[in-house]
Structure formats: C-alpha cells, structure tokens
UniProtKB/TrEMBL annotation:
This is 2-hydroxyglutaryl-CoA dehydratase subunit D. The keyword Iron applies. Keywords: Iron, Iron-sulfur, Metal-binding. Its cofactor is [4Fe-4S] cluster. GO terms for molecular function: hydro-lyase activity; iron-sulfur cluster binding. It comes from Calderihabitans maritimus. Belongs to the FldB/FldC dehydratase alpha/beta subunit family. Coiled coil: none annotated. The keyword Metal-binding applies.
Amino acid sequence: MSDYRDLWQSLNMDLERHDLLCAALPSLYEEVYLNQPGRPQGMNYFNAVIAEIHGMRVAELAEHRKQGGKVFGTFCVFVPTEIIRAAGGVAIGLCGGSQFWVPDGEKVLPRTVCPLIKASVGAKISRTCPYFESSDMLVGETTCDDKKKAWEILNEYIPTYVMELPQMKREKDRQAWIEEVGIFKGTVEKITGKKIEREHLREAIRVENAKRKALKRLYSFRKNDPVPISGKDALLVTQIAFYDDPQRFVERTEELCSELEERVTSGYGVFKNGAPRIVIAGSPQAIPNWKLHHLIETSGAVVVCEETCTGTRYFEHLVQEEGETLEELLVNLANRYFQINCACFTPNHERVEDILRLVHEYRADGVIHYNLSFCQPYSIEAARVEKALKAKGIPCLRIETDYSEEDIEQIRTRIEAFLEVVR
C-alpha cells in the first residue's frame, strides 16, 4: 500500500494502533484468497482494492470533502443510498468485521452484544478506521435493540441519524416507511445544502440499480456446475460493493462477469463437477469476516449463494425508475427497500420462502444457517428455517460463531460431518 500516513494523520487517527490493524490483513488475505487455484483474472481489481483498503478510497473521500461534499457512513441495507447520492453525497458501508475492534467495543457495550456491533463501535472509538473518521454523519436504523442503543453511544462521538424501520409489513407500515424515507431526504438535503430534484434522484436510482444488476449477473454464474468463481471471491466482490465508487465497481464487476461467461461456455470451474453446493443464510459478513466461507471451501464444498445482507438481500429487487414526480420516485424507492426480508420483521414467512427459492435456483445440496453470536433476530429464526428446509428434505446445519479463531477447528469438524450428509 502507498504511504497515506499524512492523510490518516489529518483524520486524527491513532496511527500506532492502526499499524497493528493493517499488519494483520496481508497474511490473512494471502491465506484465504491468494492461495486459491484458478482465480479469475478479473479478481485482480478487487485484490488491489483490498491492498489499498484504507488508502485509495479514503483519499477519494478526502478529495470529495475538500470540494465541499459530504460523506455518510451507513451500516445497513435499509439505508436508501440513492437519496445520499442524489444530494451529491457519498455513502460508505461501515460495518466492522474484525475481532481487532471488539475489545474496544466492549469498553462501552456489554459482552453479550453481537461482534458486528461491538466491532463497529470499537472501530470508531479506537480511531483506527479511516472510513469512520472520513464520515460527516453516520446513518443507523432500528433493525435490532442492540443497534438502537449503539447509535446513542456513537452519537457521543459523531452525529448519528437513526431511521425508524417498521417491524411489520402491513399497509400502514409501508406508509410509515415512505414517510420515513421522505424525512431522511430532508435531513440529507439539510446536511449537504443541496435540494434534491426529480432528475437527481432518477439518476441516482439508475446508478444504484446498475450495481444491483451487476451483482445479480455475478451471482447468476454461480448457478452453474462447475462454478466458475469461488464463494469466497463472490462474497468479497459484494463486500467491496458497499464502499467502492459505484460506477467504477459496476465496470469492473461486468468485466469479471464477461470472464465468467467465457468460463461457463468452456466448462471451466474452480471446483470439480459435483462438489457439494452450499447456501449460506443468516447474519451479514463484513470485511474481513471470511471465516465461514474459508472453512467450507477448504473442506471440499463450494458456497453458491448467500441469503444475507452481504448477499442477495443487498441487491435483489430494483427500484422502479419511472416516475412523473419526485414524490413518485420516493415511493418507488421506499417500496424497493420494504421488500427486504430482514429478521427484524414479524411475521417473516417471506424470508423462509426466499431461502427455499435460492436453494432451488442455485441447485444447492444444503444450507448452513450462519449466526453471529448474540444476534437474536437471526438466532430465533434459525429453528424455523431449519424446520422448513428439513420438511423439503434439504439438509441444514446451524453455526453460531464470532470473529475469533478459537472455535475454528470445532466448526471445521462440524462442517466436514455435514458434508458427509449432503454428498
């Protein structure tokens, strides 16, 4: 990575501790990613993004702010990034996926909070994440009680705006969400000083839809046997989508997809024909949380799809781009996000139906329900998901873990035993 110390210094980061964080990533990335055989050439761009993970994009954000632009840090797939973009702002995904930040999070949060929340809070209060330090405002949401309280803590360090997401999907809840999206638009306009017009929002919708289409195309190639790309690489591309420049990301992902198309035509795969095919369902996996995928794919199976916030929940469903007025486009926007089947909703039968559909579409042999420790919404839904899958004769394994390495061999043993069942 190039020398960005002056930039990090200008962001008031703790450089000494940041050096410790950065020192751990290269060896982890080499073990998990660079040692994979047969990787597509198109992954070289995404390798470079990781190599510069706290550099190139952070420098772009600094230049954006220098020109008077605003940066909004987000944590969840429910934040309508189109509104931020329409107001000339930049949205950056901030979820923390490293054990490095957990001890700092535990200084102000109970231990019995999920590692994602503890790492996110820890990343901010330790001043070791340049994306937090580049943000003018954080945007939280009410998808779980632990997050709601975490926003109160983060607000002591940086302005944190919270969107209220309804917990049911009745018509009156949809109307409330439409109103909430409108209120968010007003907040973003106030922060950026730019009034959003219909054409601004329509163009922002087009850009974000292009990203969703590119990811959907990428995932479509994973339906083949043999698969032309590993689950680890597909996960990495989706994780990077949260913070890369959208237009550049689309160009590079489409290039990768063209290469995958050629691989499918020639029958080239990164796993042998008939390798067990696994769908991951459950909690999100933020960078650098590659633990479960790595264990599965070094045990002889391939991950073909993720029913997670770092998977299909992020890109399924497009926003309808046609609308005669700004208000109509805002309704279209709200309607798209309201289709996401997060575990925060009750009842949530649609999520179970989604998992069954994905198993069919991706020709999966089994499902691993992944649960971050203390992530109650997904933990509670796990039993219902398992019951529905077993009723259809689909094997299911429930894994609950955190970001530490202490349980790696135990999980590997369970996965290997599960794969004996699905083979």
